[in-house]
């Protein structure tokens, strides 16, 4: 990508998520190798990584829950070696999405924002005082593991009643099924099928989305009260449910965001789509390793 956010060259490989760590790394190296053969690679000055978490940017390691072979895996070191020493910036995928939305999406122009990915999990990131705030390890804003139900279901993270345990796509579908929702003749029990059922008026599917919206509203309001964000941007597969999610979310937010300094908080759908992680990883790298020539030019113009 260039400084304007234009994608110059794209490469991708399937993730062999159930294989050992080095096999997964070979897929990453294949992507890098293809990019290196492109004409634009000679101008590359940094590499950005947006990874499923947890990540530890301070150590350069990743431990994605859905990639068992990567536990404390030294991804930054391995990518740096594969790219002949280019500087590497690592952030969590929620932080990457936030960087993308602040640069090119719904959070553009907002100095204080929370951006969320609501999909198979719930992640997020923060913009504070006009700048991306990844935190020391690259996980700041991970709203999915704020507890909003103190006596709620156990979460795989070890806590109880986390936003993710209530509002992620699989948990929305699970709760509807446990309440008695039955899919159509095709047997589709996916979150997308649940959203279609809710849109058609199914009360059990609707109730599960309402519960998810309430959990999201509680987490967003808590975040807004803590750091005074003025917009929450929501992307990911569950956000594609549209008003099935956003209408009850906005209603619930009025019940939770009650203090005077958070009442004007707005919620908006994300705009950067499926490229959010890629765009955001590039944005994080550009932020961490700015172009020295461009910085000198800006300084000269100001002078």
Brief description of this entry?
Helix content is 41%, strand content 13%. With 303 residues, it is α/β, with parallel strands linked by helices.
CATH architecture of the largest domain: 2-Layer Sandwich
Question: Segments where pLDDT lies below 50 for 5+ residues?
Answer: 294-303
Give, in spatial order, the strands making up the sheet with the most strands. Answer: 7-6-5-8-9
Q: SS-based structural class? A: alpha/beta
The CATH H-level homologous superfamily of the largest domain: ATPase, nucleotide binding domain
Order of helices and strands: HEEEHEHEEEHHHHEHEHH
| Percent in helix | 40-55%
Rg computed from alpha carbons, rounded to a whole number of angstroms: 20 Å
Total number of beta strands: 9
Please, how many helices?
Answer: 10
Q: Overall mean pLDDT score?
A: 91
The geometry reads as: globular
CATH class of the largest domain: Alpha Beta
How many strands, which pairing sense, and closed or not: the largest β-sheet?
Answer: 5 strands, mixed
Task: Give the amount of beta strand, in percent.
Answer: 5-15%
| Count of individual domains | 2
End-to-end Cα distance, whole Å, is 29 Å
* CATH topology grouping of the largest domain: Nucleotidyltransferase, domain 5
Biased composition (Low complexity): 188-197
Pfam families: ROK
Protein name: ROK family protein
InterPro entries: ATPase_NBD, ROK, ROK_cs
Q: How are the elements arranged and paired?
A:
Layout: H1 21-36, E1 47-51, E2 55-56, E3 61-62, H2 75-82, E4 88-92, H3 93-104, E5 113-118, E6 122-128, E7 131-132, H4 163-167, H5 169-178, H6 191-199, H7 203-227, E8 231-235, H8 243-256, E9 266-269, H9 276-288, H10 292-302
Parallel strand pairs: 1-4, 5-8, 8-9
Antiparallel strand pairs: 2-3, 5-6, 6-7
Helix pairs in contact: 1-2, 3-9, 5-6, 5-7, 6-7, 7-8
Protein name: ROK family protein
Family: Belongs to the ROK (NagC/XylR) family.
Organism: Streptomyces longispororuber
